[in-house]
Amino acid sequence: TKQSIKSWSMREQNEAMFWANRGKLREITKELLDIPRERQVLINTPMQVELRRWLTPIIASKEHQGYFIISPDNMSIASLRNENIGIENLLIQQPDFLNEIWAGKTALSRPLISDVLLVDSRNGQYEKLPTMFVGAPIFNDNKEVIAAFTFRINLNLAFTSILQLYLKQNRRC
């Protein structure tokens, strides 16, 4: 079980690094960083639509629940949800997570209470469900970290198969 969780964590972090440094995401991030940090301006930029159009199939295929692009001042400059844009990112509650990303590494957050409604295992939307994130740095052409990219992990799905494996193994004992 411990190895399964470790393998899952590494897969998630590798995926985050892969997507964080795709050309399209880097280009959009550079443009978003140049926009004034005004909530409505960030929400209404056509780059949000373009980014959502591009990332939505990726998120669906990974069964994640969203994403963030976080500026160096810890503001959410892009998200799947408008209510997250233009405000301080909830991951400031875990400075060690963000510090890893600002240092150029991938990171996996600890569970925390969601700041938005999330769908649970029964497909209902609820407040204050636990959530986790996997994140990676977005680099510029000079290999400097310009922003953080995160996927919101669906905890209902992420650990179901690992816990089923654990239960299966323990039934044999």
Give an overview in words.
The chain has 173 residues and is an alpha+beta fold. It is 45% helix and 21% strand. It has helices at 2-20, 23-33, 39-44, 46-62, 95-102, 155-158, 160-172, and strands spanning 66-70, 76-79, 107-108, 112-113, 118-119, 125-126, 130-139, 145-153. The strands form 2 sheets. Strands 1, 2, 3, 4, 7 and 8 form a 6-stranded antiparallel beta sheet that branches. A hairpin with a 5-residue loop joins strand 7 (130-139) and strand 8.
Secondary structure layout:
Blueprint: H1 2-20, H2 23-33, H3 39-44, H4 46-62, E1 66-70, E2 76-79, H5 95-102, E3 107-108, E4 112-113, E5 118-119, E6 125-126, E7 130-139, E8 145-153, H6 155-158, H7 160-172
Antiparallel strand pairs: 1-2, 1-8, 3-7, 4-7, 5-6, 7-8
Brief overview, please?
45% of the residues lie in helices and 21% in strands. The model has no long low-confidence stretch (mean pLDDT 85).
